Every structure is written in C-alpha cells, then in structure tokens.
Amino acid sequence: MTRMTKFRRSAARFALLAVTLAPVVLRAQSTDRAKQLGNKLMCNCGCSDLAGQCSHPGSGFSGPCDTAKATLKKIDDKIAQGMSDDQILQSFVQEQGEAILAAPQARGFSMVAWLLPGVVFGLGLGLVVIVIRNWRHRPAPLPASGPPVSAEFLEQARRQIDRDTEE
Description:
This protein is mainly α. It has 2 domains: 101 residues, Orthogonal Bundle (Helicase, Ruva Protein, domain 3), CATH 1.10.8; 32 residues. Helix content is 63%, strand content 0%.
C-alpha cells in the first residue's frame, strides 16, 4: 500500500467518525444550553427548585422530576428551531406568566426587587455614619460641681487609705 492510499483511508475514517459523532456533540451542546436556560426558569412541580437543577433527594426517587425533564426537552426543541435565549424565555413567560422566571425582569414594578436591597443598604450605611459622627462629636462631660475639697482633707483621706490597706 502506498502512503497516499493510507492517507486516504485515514481521512475517510476521520470523516466517517466526524459525521457519526456530529449529532451527539451538537445534542450535548444543545443540552448544556438547555440546562443554562433551565437555570433561569422555576420548576413547576412544586419543589421551588430551578428547572435546570431540580432534584428530589430523600424522596421516592432522586434526580430531576418529569416536569423539569419536560421543560428541558421543550427548551431543547426551541433551541433546535433556532430561537435565541431571550425568545425562549419570553415564550415561557407568555405561556406561564412571569412567575416562571427565577429572577424578576429588570423593568417596571419588578425593578423594585432589584433596587430595594441597594437602597436599604445605603440607608443603613448612612445611619451608621451619622450615629458614629454624633458619638465622636459629643461634648466633653462637665466636671463635677460642688464645694471645693481642701488639701488638708485630701491628705487625711490618703492617710486613712494607707492605714486601711496595711492591715
């Protein structure tokens, strides 16, 4: 056999292998994309997990439920149709409402859910700064008022303390 014949056979084998494995590789990429999109949708089985991560440890079975599997299959079908990620998510919102989304959309009244934590943090930080500033700028306490103490009385008190502590 010549070198050219061996090369042609190797090239033919590689082409056959590529054609055979291409659908498997494309399907795996599609499934990964479906899981990523599934992580943006809630599972409707009542488990309050994401559709891409739905699992039921400790129950009669462990792993994604039929509802999550159906959602991921639906996403895969939409990917195969050539829909973009936003189009797929919007189709689920149109079918099942905005409750299907794992995170609220950043528009309209839902914007409050995105802004409120930052606003509350800022207000709390401002309050802490104000309190600390007030503590630092408090006026010094006034000295005790009353009749002055004579030096003779202080000396007598010191001698009494010395006698009491010697014993």
